[in-house]
Amino acid sequence: MKELQDIVQAFDKADKNGKQTALATVVHVEGSSYRRAGARMLITEDGELTGAISGGCLEGDALRKARLVMAQNKPMLVTYDTTDDDDAKLGVGLGCNGIIHILIEPILTDRQDNPIQLFKLFLSKREPVVLITLFTMNDKQASQPGTCLLLTKNTDIKGTFPDEAIKDMLLADAKDVLVNGNSVTKTYIYGDKFTCFIELLQPAVSLVLFGAGNDAIPLVQLADVLGWHIYIVDGRSNYAIPERFPLAKKIIMARPENALAQIVIDDRTVIVLMTHNYIYDMAVLKQLLPLQLPYVGALGPKKRLLRMLEELRDEGMEITDEQLASVYGPTGLDIGSENADEIALSIIAEMQAVLNNRMGTSLRHKNAIHNRHTGHIIKQTLH
User: Fold this and answer.
1) Cystine design at 240: which of 66, 165, 234, 247 (Cβ 3.0–4.6 Å)?
2) What is the pLDDT, as a whole number, of residue 246?
């Protein structure tokens, strides 16, 4: 999400200055790689790079090929094979032991459905979409349609089908990804054997902080680096002010019973209760529990949270195990945090782990860190 935001901003700047641009997209990975399918990088004619397609080892070669793409106004599929231990012969020194397929396409500003326009459509609304990128792996000299279609939550279609023969199957697969939430790569076997990367794009994470104290400031700063949308809620007029939180998307001064009505809450919303006001935090928690959000963090000792829950039960509120599963108190990972900056790091890390269904353990205990084997190609034969 943050990468797409940066790419769109960089494109607008380059376009304003009359510079040509090209988009490099990792469309398929076999084995291990630093970035997975969906990683992107915008390249300008004078060599400015925004985003990343690797850990830095592919960018130089991609820049050279992007200049050719811009000169010819023709997309190009590039494959880097590092399964050979001696990958230095490629001149890029990947060291990843995988095969990475990268599509480089020129951004044609006269086309209303160019990739940047599709990105802007996605970024303009807070809802998931499916982005479709078509390419041909068996013949790299053949036409490469590139990033060509976007399917919205309401099944509206933006873009054009490069071949009507695959339209019905492509739409069915895209709708399946939109519903089930797993990006896939499929090869439609006929003629030139189009390979299709069907990618789910999720809206930015919304971080809602109930509490505008000094300890909220580093949380806001870290969340902003990740491209999250930040909302500050507090009942104190001298705390909830833009001068203290210039990076926040919205600052709300409200009583707890009036706060949630002013925020869009969805399954990409994470929340921390950190007002240091027991009554305020408990009043908010009472409203949040039925929503079963991905993450509700409670700052402070565990006994404080348990006391809140017990008092809510005493008031007659039924609290289920499913509701409690999304409550994290004390909030944050156990990384030995002491000051506000370190605590903010532990909270953001735990949120990131929860959103990605991970445990937040050390990578040294895993046999593989990328799990790119899930990106296999599914063959779909047309009749």
Assistant:
1) 234
2) 97
Q: What is the DSSP string of 15-57?
A: HHTT--EEEEEEEEEEE--SS-TT-EEEEETT--EEE-SSSSS
8 Å CB contact between 28 and 197: yes
What tokens does 2 get?
């943050």
Residue pLDDT, tens place only, 352-365: 999 999 988 888 88
Structure tokens at 130: 């499916």
Q: d(Cα 121, Cα 6) in Å, to the nearest integer?
A: 15
Separation CA 346–CA 146 (nearest Å): 39
Residue 314 Ramachandran class (φ > 0 left, ψ -120 to 50 alpha, else beta) = alpha
Q: Which residues have C-beta within 8 Å of that of residue 9, sequence separation ≥ 6?
A: 50
Q: Are 70 and 22 in contact (CB under 8 A)?
A: yes
pLDDT at residue 35 tops 70: yes
> Which residues are registered as beta bridge partners of 28?
101
Residue 268: C-alpha distances to residues 43, 46, 200, 232 (Å):
30, 37, 14, 16
